Amino acid sequence: MMKTTIFFSLALCAILATATPASASVLAVWNFGDSSAFYTESPAYYNTVTAPTLSLLGSGLDTNGKNGIAYTDSAGISHIAGQAAAWDDINKSGTENDAALIITLNTTGFSGLTIRWDYKSELAISFDFAYRTSPNDKWTQFADNRAITPGWATDSWYSVTLDLSAITAINNQSFVQLRLDDLVEGPGNDKFAIDNIEIASIPEPATLLILGLGGMALRMRKP
Hints:
The structure is a single chain. It contains 2 helices and 14 strands. It has 2 domains: 1-21 and 204-223, no CATH class; 23-203, Jelly Rolls, CATH 2.60.120.430. The protein has helices at residues 2-19, 205-221; strands spanning 25-30, 45-46, 53-57, 61-67, 71-72, 78-79, 83-87, 100-105, 110-121, 126-132, 140-147, 158-163, 176-184, 192-203. Strands 1, 2, 4, 7, 9, 12 and 14 form a 7-stranded antiparallel β-sheet that branches. Strands 3-8-13-10-11 form a 5-stranded antiparallel β-sheet, with no helix packed on it. A hairpin with a 5-residue loop joins β5 and β6. α1 (2-19) runs antiparallel to α2. By secondary structure, it is of the alpha+beta class.
């Protein structure tokens, strides 16, 4: 009886994995900490094979972060208005902009990526976004001078969403890097904060099967 149950359970998981339309799944979320006393660049949670990493670059980086904004991610998980990553001056090196954010992640089992974030900008009016699939590759530009809205003076937050699903090169890869940089602005100091970075994707059928088997195994362990 047990073998029959296992067989039919496996068959059902396989059928569901191939027949059910895949819905978006959260790969990772960064909220940079739940309070002003706790700033972190580690993800709030992730569903990738290995933990993704986030690096902030720039001589004007605020290493303690700034106040963030509340957010509910696409999985329905709420993140309070804790901390945000920030730069006190994205133009610290004079006319050369040196502020950048780089995410490294493993997309094995996922395709059709999207990325979104909240931001608050003092003077910056645009950004660039690029990707690569090897640490030795050149960056490939995806967004060039994409417009954003300044709002620091009024404490106004805005959001950006980029649909990366057309970039098939970053699907199902053990190494993917995404880079946000070139926050274009005028001379002088320029603050910039970013919060609630969420990367979502469509699970491959095999990934859905594994998730289904994991759930079945948990149920079978129950008395």
